[in-house]
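Notes continue from the previous slide.

Worked example: a multi-chain complex. Inputs as given:
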Amino acid sequence: MKEVSFRKFLILTAIAILLLFTNLIPAVNIFKNIYMSIVFPVARLAYYPEYGYKNISERIASIRNIYKENMKLKNKVNKYKEEYKDFELIKKRLDYYKGILGYEREVAPSLMPARVMFHAPENYFTQFTVSRGENDGVSKDDAVVYFNEYDWVLAGRVGRVYENYSSVVLITSHAFRCGARLESGDRGVIEGRNGWLLNMNYISPDARVDKGDRVYTSKTGGVIPGNLLIGTVIDVDVLDFSKGQVAEVMPAVYPQNAEVVYIICN
Amino acid sequence: MQLIITIILGFLLQLLSFRYFSYQGIGVNVMLILTIEVALVKGGDRGGLFGFIGGIIEDMFFFGVIGERTIIRLLLGYAAGWIGDKFKAHSFLLQFMLVFISVILQAAFIFAVRTLFRYPVISHKNILITAAVNGVVAPLIYTAVKKTNAG
């Protein structure tokens, strides 16, 4: 007769009964649910290996499909990014032309684009030739402007007019003068220096002039329309009382860089 | 070590039998039969231990109350060992009867425990046929256990 250990039997029975009663503890049930959610798929795989295989192979196929779709979408995104760059360029141009049209409506009903045809090196700071002339309605001393994305900027005035082209006296020229005003309203006269900077002369001694003040054309000149941006004050010199203050002005845009300018025909 | 290997093989065989050799809930409960046969061959201690460990593994692997199979297999193992000592263990009729009654007792115990713990219970409308099928398979497993000295 085989020996049966009574003690062993009691111990195992006690453990088994304890195991049974652990089902009453909520924490054990929570653990069991988590555990079964992991184990059950494995059990299902053991019971139905062909379904498990099918499941796994379907998942692998879907991963491949997802990868392919991802690559397609990435290519599309890159293509759209390129198209967006073109769109941005077109939009910039559009805004530029809108600005032109807006100015035309508000200030200068007769705004004529003109291409810079010729710019001699010896006249680099003084003048260039544009593609509009008498036949297009251009007159001497007509203002010539340039659109700088945000503002209309004075480039110069028409000097000599020929049939189909004209010469433009640039604001950087020593021969160029026009009435100007500061943001504060104080007036002066802008004069070119045949260089990169301009002088604003005859500012009243009591005028408040600060570095960074913007300078605009004033309407008092009669020829050049008012409110055209000229540049920014970079330095101020107070001379004796008879001459007032002189400001050094940096042009907002150098007309030397322009390819297309606009003539405001009177 | 032999015990562990037997438990693992029995468990795998159980998975296969339920998957491929069951019909409308009628299947061979390999682990239960092994518990009885190991108890008949090697005594109540071994049979009880086999039932205990096998029961824990099945409780952890399958849905149900933790400990339901553990306790019933443990008791059946010891009981089979005691009966095997009293009567001729190699008798096919004894094996058939033991397994037949064990299947019914296990089903009843699990039903009672699950009802007590408010767990879903499975239908046992074919319990007698299941018990009979298991009883018929029992002598084959007894021969295998005896020859291989499994458990």
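Summary box: Chain A has a mean pLDDT of 83. Chain A touches chain B at residues 1-5, 8-9, 12-13, 15-24, 28, 32, 35-36, 39-40, 43, 46-48 (CB under 8 Å).
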